[in-house]
User: What shape does this take?
Amino acid sequence: MDRKPFRLGGLAALLALAGAAAVPLLTDNPYYLQKVQMAGILVIAVQGLNLMAGYAGQVSLGHAGLFAVGAYTAAKLALSLGWGFVGDFAGAVVMTMLVGLLLGVPALRVRHHYLAVVTIGFGIMVEKLANEGGSFTGGFAGLTGIPGVILFGRELDAVGTYYVILALAAGLTWGIANMARSRVGRAFLALREGEVAAESLGISEYRYKLLAFVLGSLGAGMAGALYAHVFRYVSPESFTFGVSVEMLVMLLVGGMGTVAGPVLGVGLIQALPELIAGLDAFRLIIYGGILLLAVIFLPGGLVSLLPRRWREPSEPMPDKGELERLEEQAVELLRRAPGPADVPALEVQGLTKYFGGIKALDGVSLRVEDGTIHALIGPNGSGKTTCLHAISGIYRPSGGAVFLRGQEITGRKAYQLAGLGLARTFQRSQIFPRLTVLENVLVGQHSWRRTDLLQAALGLPGARREEREAREFALGLLSLVGLADRANQEAGSLPHGLQRLLEIARALAARPAVLLLDEPAAGLSEPEGEELERLLRRIKELGITILLIEHDMRLVMGISDTVTVLDSGQVICSGAPEAVQSDPRVLSAYLGDAAAD
Amino acid sequence: MSLGFLLQLVFTGLTMGSIYALVAIGYNLIYATTGIINFSQGELVMMGGMVGLAAVTALGLPPHLAILVSLAVVSVLALAVYRIAWQPLSRRQSGGSRLGWILSTIGIGIVIQNVAMLLWGKEFHPLPALVPDGNLRLGELVINSVQAFVLLAAILLAVLTELLLNYTFLGKAFKATSFNAEAAAYMGINTPAMVGFSFALAGALAALAGFLVSPLTFASSVLGLIVGLKGFGAAVLGGLGSNRGAMVGGLILGVMEIISGTFITAGFRDITAFLLIILVLVMRPQGLLGQPVTEKA
Assistant: This one.
C-alpha cells in the first residue's frame, strides 16, 4: 500500500533520468552539451518556482532576481574568497534563501496582482543593482573569470559538470516529489486553495508562506550558483524580467504544482528553438504567445495531457471488511474521555465585536457543557457567525474572554486553535476544491501530525509510517461520513451536500474536543439532513462537544441539549429546547412583537 | 543647493508624474469593470509613442495628425487585448484566483513589445512635440514649453476622464457596472460592452500618454515595462480604483524618483521608485488616499 500507487510515475521518472544521463553518450557536440547543462540548471530554478507558485500559490514574476542573487553571490565568493566550488555553492544558496525570506515578508501582506507587482519590482531592482553596482558587480559587463566546477581538487569537464547538474536536479525533484505527498506539501496546497480554511486546520499562513519563499529561493540559489560556475560569467542581461517570465512560462506549460511539470516545461521550451530553425528573432513573441495560449487552452499544462493514472497516484481502495476496521480505528482515535464535570468544554464571557461603530456582538456569554450539543440560533444578522469567528480566531474580539476546557484562548490566532482541540466548518463550504477528498481529510490532521520538512523531503521511514497511518485514519473518517468510495475524487466535483459532510470529516480529522459547525444543514436535501443528524449524534457519542449554528429548527430542537438565542448581538434566552421554543422573547425576535402577545 | 534648482527638479518630476497618473487611470478603468490589472498597459503606452513615430516618419504626417493615428491604433489594440486576454478567461474563471489574467495580460504584453521590437528595433527615437520648444524664465526656474504642455495636457485629460465618468450617461453605466455588474445587467446595461469600453478608454489614455511623453523621453520599444510598472505604482500609491488618488500618486512618484535620481545616481531612479511602490504595498495596501478595508471572512 505504501509504494504501489506511485509505480507508474516512478518508472517514467527513472526512464527520463536514464534518458537525460545518456545524452553525453549520444553526442559530444559542445553546443548540445551546453544546452542540456542549461536545461538542468533551469529545471532546478523552475522547481524552486514550482514550490512557491505551483504548490503554495505565491506566484513570483521576479524569480530571475533570486537566480541572480545566487549567481552573483557564487561569482563574488569564487573571485574574492576562493572557498572552492562547494563553499561558493553553499554560500550562494544560503544568501539566496535569506533574500527570499526578505521577499516573503511583503508576500504576507499582499496577494494576486499586488504580489505580481512586488515580485516584478524585486526582479527589476536586482537587475538594476547589478547594473549600477560599479566594480563590485562589474556593472553592465558583469563578472568574468569565475572558475569552473572543481570537486575533490579536480576540475570537471563539460560531461562531468553535466552529471553534477543532473544529480542536483534529480535530487531536488525527488525531494519535491516526496514532499508533495506529505503533511508539509499538503499544507502548501491547502494554503493555495483557501487560506482561511487552512488556518482553521492549524496551518500557519505566516510560517508556510515564508517557508515557500525560502524553499523557492533554495532552487533559485542552487541554479544561480551552478550557472556562475558552469558558464564562468555572470552579467545583468541573464537575469532580466524576460527571464523571470520565461521561467514562469516553463512552469505553466509543464504544469504548475506537479512534480513533472518543470521538467516537461523546461524540456519543451529549451527544445523549441532547435525544432524550428531561424526562430531566434521571434523567440520572445513565441514565449508570449505560448503563455497566452497555455493560460487559455491548457491551464493544467502538459502534465494534464498525460494519462490520469500516471500523474495522480490514487489511493488503492481497501475492501469492505478492511474499511470497517479502519473506521473502527478512526472512531477510537476520535473518542474522548469526559472532562471534569465543573469545567465547561467552551465558555464565552461577555464577548464583544465592533465593526467600526456597529456592535455585531454585544457582551455574549455562553456555557457549552462537555459532551453536549449546543445550538446557537437567531434571526439573520443577529451575530451568530461573528460569534463563531470571534471564538475560532478568525476575528479578533473587541472585548470579553473565551475559554476552551478551562484554558483561556481569547484572541489566539486561528491556526493555534486546532492544536488546542477546537475545529470548525464554515457557513459557505470551504473545502479545498482541487485536492482529492482524501487529501482534504489528510490536511485536517495537520495540527497533530509531526512530520517536518526534512523528514518529508528525504522520505525517511518515520515520515512514511506517519503518512501510512494518516491515510488509514483519513479513509476511516471518510467511511464514517459515508464518503469512502469517493476518496480519490476531486473535492470540488462533489455535490454540495457531500461537500458539507467532507468538511465535517476534515474538521474531525483534527481530533477536536469541541467542534464548531456553521449551518451544516444549509442546502441539504431531506435524506441528507437525516444523514447529518445521525452523524452528529454519533460524534456526540464519542464525547466530542458540538456548538452548532443552524436555521433548520427541526434539526436543532431534535438533537440539541441546550439552545441559545442571539438577537442583535445579545443573548436573549438560553435553555433546553422546549423552554426556548415557548419563550416569548424568542418569538418576538423571530416574528416581531405582535407574535409574542 | 538653491531653491530654484529644487523647484526645477519638482517641475520636471511633476511632468513625468502626470504621465504616470494617466497610465494609472488606465489601470483603474479596467480594474473598475473587471477587477483585474491589465499588465499590458505599459506596452500600450509604448505603442502610443511608437505608432505616433511611425506616422510621423513613415507617413510623413504632422504631429497633431499623428497623435490621432496613434489614438485610433492603440485603442483598437486595447480592444484586441480585451478580446484575446480577457474574454476567453472570463467565461471560465470566476473571482478567486486572478492568476490566469495576470499571466494572459503579461503574455499579450510580451507579444506586443516584441512585435514592436521586430518592427522598429530597440533604439530610442525623438518624436516631435505638439508645441514649439521654448523656455520661459521665472527667476531661477526655467519652464520648458514642451514639459509644461505635457503637464497641462495630462491634467486636462485626467479631468476630462473624471467628467466623462461622473457627468455622462455612459459614465454612469460604467460606474454601475463596476459597482455591481450583475445588478447593472438587470437594469439593461450591456456590461460586456462596458468592459470593452473600459479597455478602449484605457487604450486611448495610454496612446495619449505615450505620445505626449515621447518628445521628452524619446520613443522606444523597450520602455513599456518600466512605464507600465510605474503607472501601476502610481495607481497603488493613490489607492487602486481612485482616479484622483492616481493623479496624486503619479505626481508623488514622479517627484520622488527625480529627486532620488539626482541626489543618489541616475541609475538609482528606478530602484527608488520600485522600493517606494513595494513599501506602500506592504505598509498601506489601500494606498495613501484609500480607506482601509475591513475584510470579511
